[in-house]
Amino acid sequence: MRYYKKLTGKKVYLSPMNVEDAEVYVKWLNDFDVTDGLGNSNRVVSLEDEREWISQNSGQNQFAIVRLEDDKLIGNCGIHGLDQSKQCAEVGLFIGDEENRNKGYGQDVLNLLLNYGFNYLNLNNIMLKVFSFNEAAINCYKKVGFREIGRRRKSYYLRGKFYDDVYMDILREEYHQFDK
């Protein structure tokens, strides 16, 4: 597969998505270990649906996450909910295979997305949502400079239990203070 280094970090780079990767994404998006953290475990994703989604969204600040050391696709990320008049947006990401989690890739991805959002898209506030059970992700977000700004209590039901939606954000000025 051919990837293009749109944004390059220390461990990963972000590339435009390839429709040829749809099978890999479908495998991940039908894996409860991935989708429980995304909040869409109740969905069944087909190959055709994923190909169509990639075709429609590949130019919309959605990126493949590719490992620098071997050009291997390891996840997906993006900036969505972009409101230029308010200079706000949201970010999201996932790392597909368990073997690639807890290795600092997520932190690298977030730094790339924040740099792109603040310095190229002229954003002032970038937000994300995470579920309260996902402590590893919350810790990752804090390391990059995100702060909790609120919760929607008991709003996500998963496997017999309710969890909070945790909202976090970072401002441009905070990012530049935190900038590595």
TrEMBL record:
Return the PROSITE patterns for the record: GNAT (PS51186)
User: Which stretches make up the N-acetyltransferase domain?
Assistant: 12-173
Q: Which SUPFAM superfamilies does the record match to this protein?
A: Acyl-CoA N-acyltransferases (Nat)
Please identify the protein, giving its name as recorded. GNAT family N-acetyltransferase
Q: Which organism is it from?
A: Sedimentibacter hydroxybenzoicus DSM 7310
Pfam hit, one: Acetyltransf_4
Superkingdom of origin organism: Bacteria
The molecular function terms of the Gene Ontology recorded here are: acyltransferase activity, transferring groups other than amino-acyl groups
UniProt-listed InterPro entries: Acyl_CoA_acyltransferase (IPR016181), GNAT_dom (IPR000182)
